[in-house]
Amino acid sequence: MMRWTLRSLVFALAAVVMGPAASAQTPAALPIGTTVSGQASEAGLTYTFAASEPGVLTVAVYSTDDVTFTVADVDGQARPNGESDRDLFGSGGNELLAVAIPEPGDYKVIVKPWGSGTASVQVAAGWYAFAHFARENPDPDRRPSMAADLEVGANREDALDSEAGDEWDWYVLTPGSAGSLTVILRQVNDDSPDLALELYTADDLTEPAVRSDNDQQGVATNESATIDVRAGDKIYVKVLGALGSPVGPYRIASSLIE
Ligand SMILES: [Ca+2]
Ligand SMILES: [Ca+2]
Ligand SMILES: [Ca+2]
């Protein structure tokens, strides 16, 4: 039998008061056809949207502070042309995008202050189905959650073919010991495209921890990026075109200096 002491009553009341605050951590649904207020921090104010069919998603954001936003897939990866920092009407707080959603699925809109701090924002969105923009995406490694395992020290050849929907490749490496992990890209032949290389940690798949587009040795494909790791960390690697529309082969390798 439960006895209501003052102490247990205080805890019970605290649970009631804190309950809604704790559930406020869950991202809200994107406001379709209406405007809502929110507070965006550096971690990002996230809204979710479930597309049941292909279509077009428009999002408008207003703030008195400079803000940006991203229309992303369920892993937080920006859709092509899905990043807004347009500063409409000469004000850093006015942002607007219309983004093609080619396949059904769960999407996110992530609003952030430009730089640091927080920003009070107003957010509105619109949606219409548009079957003509439907695209099957056959790319098996198009998202971090679909990343191909790459063994540390292994060396393999792969390719991008943006014309066939293969815009980028995701890999995941899990170093067995702590150290400094270096991932490199190298040209295979004259058909190898200009690439960029991004490394992400598992806790932020939106912003790369390290990015390389340095065209090492004067070769546009050749890139190198290094990150400090602990044993068992998952490091996500994105290989993408430096200029968009990449087509052609490349080689990827990695090494761990303990
Ligand atoms: Ca802005
Ligand atoms: Ca791919
Ligand atoms: Ca490059």
Secondary-structure map:
Layout: H1 6-23, E1 28-29, E2 35-40, E3 45-51, E4 55-63, E5 67-73, E6 78-84, E7 94-101, E8 105-113, E9 119-129, E10 148-149, E11 155-161, E12 168-173, E13 179-187, E14 195-201, E15 210-212, E16 223-229, E17 235-241, E18 247-257
Parallel strand pairs: 1-3, 10-12
Antiparallel strand pairs: 2-9, 3-8, 4-7, 4-9, 5-6, 5-8, 11-18, 12-17, 13-16, 13-18, 14-15, 14-17
Give a written overview of the molecule.
It is a single chain. By secondary structure, the protein is mainly β. It has 2 domains: 26-133, Jelly Rolls (Sandwich), CATH 2.60.120.380; 144-257, Jelly Rolls, CATH 2.60.120.380. Helices cover 7% and strands 48% of the residues. It has one helix at residues 6-23; strands at residues 28-29, 35-40, 45-51, 55-63, 67-73, 78-84, 94-101, 105-113, 119-129, 148-149, 155-161, 168-173, 179-187, 195-201, 210-212, 223-229, 235-241, 247-257. A 5-stranded mixed sheet has the order 1-3-8-5-6, with no helix packed on it. A 5-stranded mixed sheet has the order 10-12-17-14-15, with no helix packed on it. It has a 4-stranded antiparallel sheet with strand order 2-9-4-7, with no helix packed on it. The chain is globular, with a radius of gyration of 22 Å. The model is unreliable at 8-24 (pLDDT under 50). It binds calcium ion (3 copies). One calcium ion (CA) binds at residues 66-68, 85, 87, 92, 95, 114.
